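Journal club prep — side note

Before the paper discussion, L.F. wants everyone to see what a predicted structure for a comparable chain looks like in token form. Sequence:
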Amino acid sequence: MTIHEIKTYKRNALINVTAEVREAVRKSGVEEGTVTVYCPHTTAGFTINENADPDVCTDLLAALEALVPKVNFRHMEGNSDAHLKASLMGASVTVPVKDGEPVLGIWQGIYFCEFDGPRNRKFYVSVNGR
């Protein structure tokens, strides 16, 4: 398992970490199996989505903001919307590995989802297989 650090730059952001995941798979030497990318934070998560058009990320963040607006939540930190968005995205993604590479569609990328930034974050990459 490898630990990766990431500095987020605004409150809500999708940051493409596909290159870091590919490198972790290559370094592992695993030719066939799975790679899991995990976020240990309750106000951030992961998703797989299009990596060709940056407007997709912009639209996704806007839709999440519309789905989970800041309202008068009871959580005293004032970031309940971030907790809800992270829950909607999920804490991890798992991708098959074939021929030493993550199996992603031509337009797919793995994104770290920040909902309570800017912050210094970390995530884990675990590669399993043979």
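L.F.'s comment for the group: The first strand starts at residue 2 and ends at 7. Keep this in mind when we get to the figures.
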